[in-house]
Amino acid sequence: MKNITVEDVARKCGLSRATVSRVINGAARVRPATVERVQLAIAKLGYLPNAHARALSGGASGTLAVLLRGGAWRPYYSNLLEGIEEVASREGLHVLLRTRDYLEAAPRLAEEGRADGFIIRNMDEPEAHLRLVERLNGRDVPFVLIGNPLGDWQSITIDNVGGARAMARHFAGHGFRRILFIAGPRGHVDSTDRLYGFKLGLSEQGLDPDAVALAHGDFSTPSGFTAMRSSFADGRCEAVFAANDRMALGAILYLRQAGLRVPEDVAVAGFDDTFFTEYTSPPLTTVRQPFRELGVTAMETMKLLLAGAPAPSRHVILPTALVVRASCGCRYAEHNPPIPEDRLVLS
């Protein structure tokens, strides 16, 4: 007689192996209707769980899939993963990283029981991400979104609007009027929020937000260079605010090639506080993202969801901070403490 397995039960009731395992293991975060469905399939098939099978079941793997768009090489991701790994190590959990084709791969990971939950960096393709989270939700697989919230599902993001508003106030304090904003790709949620916050901050200072010139890049340094060059063909600005630090660096490189000084001729600021911003010439004024804290918060939230406990908040927004350096025309030392010696050692 054939031994009935967890996979047989999952096929019988049309659920994932991970969900069936959570029912068998008595996990708290499973819908009553799902529990009844699994129990009915177990009864019909005559499945008898044992200790070995429970240990091998997908729901007891202690593995979380982290889905990152665009490649793990980005400085943003390295700090994010540091926070995720910190909590995973402390809690005895394992991390499965996926950066390519994850929209297609994630449902299979859930169905095969290879991941108990998902942390998803959601920043573009909202319809595709919506389909993914609906499939995960339908299988009772917990997930946390980092970035763009979708519906009322668990999400963690940063205060893009507030950070850009702070930069607008700072620019207004300098008396800048002819300003260029270098945005990311059209429709990108972070870039859109930063542009909105920047214009909001200017209007709060009595300036015309519609007077801001707009150029688009793709968050890369070459695209910032190209956007700066194209904008100068239409007229010179006093200050540039780029939606990320790499595009701000591209703007600085173009200005230097054009024989213009930063900040004496044109002030430049970015967003992110990437690792290199302290070491550019001049050091770059920017908005600091709490990269590591994003990872820690996402993983601690996931730990609660796996245990069947409610998260403290459905939508978490972490604060950003204005970091004033010399590229905007301020004296760097007046606004920031000296760089710690351990950050001056480059490996």
Please provide the count of β strands: 12
User: What share of residues is helical?
Assistant: 40-55%
What's the total helix number?
14
The percentage of residues in β strands lies in: 5-15%
What low-confidence regions span 5 or more consecutive residues with pLDDT below 50? Answer: 50-60, 340-347
Taken in chain order, the helices and strands follow as: HHHHEHEHEHEEHEHEHEHEEHEEHH
Average pLDDT reading:
85
Distance between the termini: 61 Å
Globally, the shape reads: elongated
| Radius of gyration, CA atoms, in whole angstroms | 24 Å
Main sheet strand line-up: 2-1-3-4-5-11
Structural class: alpha/beta
Reported for the largest beta sheet, the result is: 6 strands, parallel
Would you give an account of this structure?
With 347 residues, this protein is an alpha/beta fold. It has helices at 6-13, 17-24, 32-45, 51-56, 75-91, 102-111, 126-138, 160-174, 189-204, 221-233, 245-257, 291-306, 332-335, 341-344; strands at residues 63-67, 94-98, 117-122, 143-147, 155-158, 179-183, 213-216, 239-242, 267-269, 286-288, 315-318, 321-323. The protein has a six-stranded parallel beta sheet with strand order 2-1-3-4-5-11, sandwiched between helices. It has a four-stranded parallel beta sheet with strand order 7-6-8-9, sandwiched between helices. A two-stranded antiparallel ribbon has the order 10-12. α11 (245-257) links the parallel β8 (239-242) and β9 (267-269). α1 (6-13) packs across α3 (32-45) and α5 packs parallel to α12 (291-306). It is elongated. Mean pLDDT is 85; it is low at 50-60 and 340-347.
